[in-house]
Amino acid sequence: MADDQPPPASSPTPGLDRVARALSGARHVCVLTGAGISAESGIPTFRDALTGLWENFRPEELASPEAFEQDPAFVWKWYEWRRELVRRAEPNPGHHALAELARRVPRLTLVTQNVDGLHQRAGSTGVIEYHGNILRDRCVVEQVVADRSRDVGGELPRCASCGGLLRPDVVWFGEAIPRDALLRADAGAADCDVFLSIGTSSLVYPAAGLADEARRRGAFVAEINKDATDLSSRVHAVVRGPSGELLPELLRRLGP
């Protein structure tokens, strides 16, 4: 249980005021965002996307190295469908507010579990993409982000450099978080004095452990989420509601 009891879920105002006060004196802010902030841009969460043509499949049948090895064309069909959803989406006010927050505090580390690139499109820089980016391709031979060969036609995408098969540059079930992203996120959580958990279920580790690490190091930890999570009882402030509404309001309370 946090030292200070979270405010009632029906009243976001006290929580926002406390977060604004913490931010006003912050040296380093670390933010973790999850599927909730992208859902407000119309991008379904991973499991919510298992509808229609995909409702009879388990996630491991669509997003694992084993599935790709067995039927890369089938996996690519799933990812091309999801890519089109991402391309049509636009950053929402929550994304834009975080980009603005980075200009109002001395230092901000932004870690996202989302793979849609909406933070960057909203103007955020230095984003730590914990689970990769669905719009990038990675060569399975060279294990680097790669361009597509233009000579393949309608076949599976191939690497322009070596001709190897390409895959989406995302973290699949059973795969490790990229080392650079892992180290940078851990360093941000350990060093910050304010940590914001926004739109994440706080269930998927190791990302879910970042807030606890920040709290152990003495940071003020706040959760901004429409729903209660396992983290809710361990933070200093809880603010219930959509981040697209709450984050712009937080900026107004923070001031220039």
Q: How is this structure best described in words?
A:
The protein is built from nine helices and eight strands. It is an alpha/beta fold. The chain folds into three domains: 161 residues, Rossmann fold (3-Layer(aba) Sandwich); 45 residues, no CATH class; 37 residues, no CATH class. The strands form two sheets. A six-stranded parallel beta sheet has the order 3-2-1-6-7-8, with helices on both faces. The longest helix has 17 residues. The chain is elongated and about 55 Å long. The N terminus is likely disordered.
Can you give me a brief rundown of this structure?
By secondary structure, the protein is of the alpha/beta class. It has helices spanning 12-24, 35-39, 65-70, 72-88, 93-104, 118-121, 179-191, 210-216, 243-254; strands spanning 29-33, 108-112, 128-129, 132-139, 166-170, 194-198, 220-225, 237-240.
CATH architecture of the largest domain: 3-Layer(aba) Sandwich
Q: Roughly what is the average pLDDT, rounded to an integer?
A: 91
Strand count, sense and barrel status of the largest sheet are: 6 strands, parallel
CATH fold descriptor of the largest domain: Rossmann fold
Q: How would you sum up the global shape?
A: elongated
Taking all Cα atoms into account, the compactness measure Rg is: 19 Å
Low-confidence stretches: 1-11
Strand order of the largest sheet: 3-2-1-6-7-8
Q: Output the number of helix runs.
A: 9
Order of helices and strands: HEHHHHEHEEEHEHEEH
Q: Which class of secondary structure composition applies to the elements?
A: alpha/beta
Helical content class: 25-40%
